[in-house]
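Internal QA ticket QA-208
Title: Verify multi-chain structure generation after dependency bump
Assignee: T.L.

Test input:
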Amino acid sequence: MKYFDNWVVRGPFRSADLGVYRIIFGLAALALLPNAQFLAGYPSSFFAPPPGPLQRLSGIPPLGVLISLEIALALALAAVVFGVFTRTASVVAGVLMVLTFGLTYSFGKIDHTIFLPLAALLVVWAGWGRSYSIDSLKTRADPDAPVSQWPLRLFALLIGVGFATAAIPKFLGGWLKPGTQATEGHYWYETLIDDRNQAFAPLFGHITSPIFWEPLDWVTVALEGGIILSVISWRSFRIMIALASVFHVGVLVMMNILFTTNVVAYAAFVPWGLVLVWLKRRGVHAPRLSARAWTVVAAVGIPVLAIVAWALAVGLPIEARDGIKIVIIVIAGIVSACYLVFEILNLVRWIRGRSARRDSLRRREVAHAR
Amino acid sequence: MSKGRRNALRVAFALAILLLPAEMVIQKLVDQPYPGIYQPSFAGTPVVNDILTAKVPLVHVTFADASVVDVPFEAVLPDSKLLDLSVFNSAFQSQIRANSPETVAWLKNDLEQKFPGRTPTTMVVEFQTLKIDITDPSSRTATTTKTVTVDLQEGAR
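Actual output:
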């Protein structure tokens, strides 16, 4: 158990990493702000919440309540961005996201966006408000003090659990049988039945060889089932979520399915502090303002940011909203691909170093024998 | 780390691990709950021997002048951010739910706006099992497996 206890609290995350992630998370979540008010256009008899607390609702909440939920969520996320009452704002944002998403999932289909609110509800306890926040200006917290690592470990484990719930039915449903080509089957379903046949998707319809499709089934099951196992080490977990981000780009290109909320959640595990160091070396830094000036900026910025995000969420056409999601997924894919290349180079260096050490040892042994 | 905190973390992680079998059992026995930590399963495969099988609804609206118009099921629903097929299947799968007074009143109003000056009397939903040959997607066969009729006159009274 001692190993387990140490494993839970061991991690590479620093206050700066989490502070930058909090800002990125808040901005991305504002860009993905759910639009719930369109639900008022349905008759209440369409409302069929999945098993869970939403079944306690007797019908679709009135339009005023839906709009209030959207605005409250936008305000909470804007407060997260600026780091004002960070703990309260993060928990409120997480709960409101669960609720607002849940309302839109009460019409026959659950979209799997749960990692996004989970990030707000868990990473906050690691201390993501300790750096680059208005709260830190008030408390004058030491930005170099160690942060709690267990919330990130727990978050990683829950991401693994989430993906395992996808891997197990695939495994039981025959995805690994050589004759199935399940990915191809779902590709055709999405293309012909759900009309997800835009952009690059039609190109895949020309590929009929199982040599292309069958390995995709195996890779999918291995990736989804492997994430929970990779939680054992931070390095293996980061490699797996980087692979997952690249995988989401593949799903986007092939089937036009957008796993945007997932990649925003994975960003919790990026060492953002290193990016800041890199930027500082190039003379890029936040404006140097007094604590009082930052407080004024936040007091103005929070409502402005929230209202702009809300107006875009309800006013932008769905194509533009999808465009934002695509940009987020592609950026995540590029960052992840770079990280994977970095890890491959590390591996190559390690192998070369190992063989060089072995050669040197052999030479020394030969010299010694002489 | 204090003993209490250590034990709390042990319990939290144990519960997180136990969540996986618990979620799988709940999904199997009841349905997928919300909130829940799930990812989309895409279990099985809808294509067997190059034949894609899917269930799709066909909608026919009959008007007071006895004319019948085929309407794409998406056109019946309001513009939304949701997947129309899922919403439609959920709302019109059962005869009882499809004929609930709220649905009927809303549908009647919706169809009257879509077809100005005409009075819709019934909407028939044929749920078809569609088989598409993926080597030639234009080759399709359809079998009606279920029919749901919404009486727009009776229910709207």
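Spot checks passed. The CA atoms of residues 124 and 149 of chain B lie 4 Å apart.
Status: verified.
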